[in-house]
Structures are given as C-alpha cells and as structure tokens.
Design brief:
This protein is mainly alpha-helical and 377 residues long. It has helices at residues 2-35, 39-49, 53-70, 72-81, 83-102, 109-139, 182-206, 209-240, 248-266, 270-292, 309-312, 316-343; strands spanning 143-147, 168-172, 295-297, 307-308. This is Cytochrome d ubiquinol oxidase subunit II.
C-alpha cells in the first residue's frame, strides 16, 4: 500500500509537469492568431516554444506509462471508457506536430496561415478536453463492476473494498455525453482560461518589444477571469465532491499563487507572474489528486463501484522495480528539463527575425529533389 501511495503521488507530479509546462504551449497556440499580428511576430511566438514543446510532451507519455505499469486497472478502465475524448486529444496533438514542423516547409503565406489555424484549433480542443477529463475524475463517472463471464453488473454489496473481485472488471457504462455536465464543462473552461493566461505570460517573458507588452496587457485581462472561474469550480469541487479536508490546503495555495501572479503582472514583473502562475496550476493539480484519494476513479452510481488505490495497484514486485527505475531516470529527466530552459532563456525580439522565408517554392514542390527548387531552406 505504501508503494501504491508513492506512485499515486509520483503520477500527480508527472501531471503537474505536463499541465504546467505544456499549458503554456497550448496557450501560445491558442493565441497565435490573436497576439501575432504579422508573420514575424507569429514566428517569434513559435520560436519561443520551439525548444520546449516536444520535450514537454514527454511528461504526458511518462504519466501514461507510469499509470499503465503501476495501476493497470485504472489505465484500462479510464482509457477504454473515455476513448472518444482521449482519441480527440491524441489527434489534436498529432495535428499540432504537423502544424509546427510543416509550417516552414513551403514558402507560401497561404500554406503558413493554414497550418497556423490548424495549430490554433489543435491547441483549443485539448485545453478544453483536459479540463473536462480531470473534472470527471473529481466528480465521478458512471462506473460499475461487471462479471466478465456473464457480462452482468455485480451487486454493489458483493464488491470487496480492498481487492478486485475475481473474474470482474470496472467499466465506464455511461457514454461520452454522460461525461458532459455543468461541473465538467466548467472544468474545461477553467483549463482553457488558465492555459490562455499561462501562454500570454510566457510570451511576455520570452519576447521583447511590442509583442511582449501586448501579451502582458492581455494577461492582465485574462488573469482575473481565470482566477475567478477557477475559484468557483474549485470551491464547488471541494464542497460537493471532495471527501478530504486536506484538499483545502492546495486549493488555498493555488488561490494565493494565482492572485500573486495577477499582482506581479499588474506591476510588470513578468518573470514572477509566470512563476507564480506555474505554482497556481501545480497546486490545482495537487488539489485534483487530493480530491480523488483514496480512489483513483470514483463511481457516481455507488461508492462501492469506485476503483481504489489498492484495487488498481500492480503487484508489490512491479512497484519495487518501477521505484528503482524512477530513482535512476527521473533525476536525469528533471536535470535535462532545467538545462534546456536555462540554455534557451534569452528573450526573442520579433524585429531581429530574418525577413527571408525558407522552404520549397510553392510552384516547385514536386521538383523538390532539384536544388533550384529550394529557397533559403
């Protein structure tokens, strides 16, 4: 049980890394056509996230892999029952990769504009869906325990509290639309606003000149809205769905972080504003996991159908091996992440970006094997 709790905490940390780092990537993507008024400014915004966006996705892969290995029943129940929204997120992440990587390949403004729109849409959709997904984990989903032989629902009174019932499996029996409630949709609005503000603060921190000032002004408008909506959702979650009084602590720290970020933004301290907003998002994730415990997936049908830590956890031997591997590899990942942000800490000036555009000439795409088809590539 001790190792199961440890891995529950480690998975929460991995999600903190993903949402707090990838959050500004999504925010920049959503703001690409809003803050970027011309080609040079949009390129500056893309250069700002360029060294980091793919590395930030490692946190998602690691969180998913750790869940699969440490809590296979949790992984199987969640990913099979929430297949449609998770598939939508995956497709958007694929489109975003294409948008970033293929944008400069052809020397055509029309080509670049189309990929910018694809990038923007593929940032908006996951930003909303992640909030809906985590709100469902807090609220509870339509989960029942099915006998895998008869495919019948096991009576709640027959479900043991600490172990999986032999020959049974937890199943999400509600469809996709059962996951869309007022509470979960508000959760989607929360993550969307938080990521928008996170992206605006990141652009303010990573660029100079008018683009940086415009991003900072935008964050001053987004900050109060994001903080207010987050407060409404979090208090609703705590009062209606959280059985743990301790989850008030990360909630209060998150509120302090977001309010302090607003204050720093108002006084032009973009570095502090971004760091404090990072803390606010991190504590919001801690609040979500604290609200879920001791369950990993809560049933809205009957508490007996909820999937607990002990039910979902792998064998002790597996958790021991995973812990040893984490001790070796996680510090390296953290060191690399810190190093990459330190190396690329310099601000970007849109005016310093070369006017010349690389890529294939649009009329010679099919002749790309010929050297003359390339223009500054």
């Amino acid at each position: 049980m001790t190792l199961a709790i440890l891995w529950f905490i480690l998975i929460a940390i991995l999600w903190i890394g993903y949402l707090a780092l990838e959050g500004f990537d999504f925010g920049v993507g959503m703001l690409l056509k809003i803050l970027g008024r011309d080609e040079k400014e949009r390129r500056a915004m893309l250069h700002a996230i360029g060294p980091h966006w793919d590395g930030n996705e490692v946190w998602l892969l690691t969180a998913g892999g750790a869940t699969f290995a440490a809590f296979p029943e949790w992984y199987g129940t969640l990913f099979s029952g929430a297949y449609i929204p998770l598939l939508c997120i995956l497709l958007c992440l694929i489109v975003r990769v294409c948008a970033i990587e293929w944008r400069p390949k052809i020397n055509s403004q029309t080509w670049r504009d189309r990929w910018d729109w694809a990038h923007t849409i593929s940032a908006w959709v996951p930003s909303i869906l992640w909030g809906v997904a985590f709100a469902n984990l807090v609220q509870g989903m339509r989960i029942e325990v099915l006998d895998m032989t008869t495919r019948q629902v096991v009576p709640a009174a027959d479900v043991p509290a600490d172990t999986l019932l032999y020959g049974s499996s937890h199943q999400i029996t509600g469809g996709f639309f059962s996951m869309l409630t007022a509470f979960t949709l508000l959760g989607g609005v929360v993550t969307c606003l938080l990521f928008l503000n996170h992206g605006a603060l990141f652009i303010a921190l990573k660029t100079t000149g008018e683009l940086s000032q415009r991003a900072l002004r935008l964050s001053r408008r987004l900050g109060p809205a994001a903080t207010a909506v987050t407060a409404v959702w979090a208090i609703w979650a705590q009062i209606a769905y959280s059985p743990n009084a301790l989850s008030w602590l990360p909630l209060i720290i998150a509120a302090v972080g977001l309010l302090a970020s607003m204050s720093a933004s108002a006084t032009g301290r973009d570095g502090w504003a971004f760091a404090l907003h990072f803390v606010g998002i991190a504590m919001a994730v801690v609040f979500i996991f604290a609200s879920m415990a001791p369950d990993v997936m809560r049933s809205s049908i009957d508490p007996a159908y909820s999937l607990t830590l002990t039910q979902a956890a792998s064998a002790e031997t597996t958790l021991i091996i995973m812990t040893a591997a984490a001790v070796v590899f996680v510090p390296g990942v953290l060191a690399y992440t810190i190093w990459s942000y330190k190396v690329f800490a310099k601000r970007i000036n849109a005016d310093d970006i070369d006017e010349g555009q690389g890529g294939l000439h649009p009329t010679k795409v099919r002749d790309s094997a010929q050297p003359e088809a390339l223009i500054g590539y």
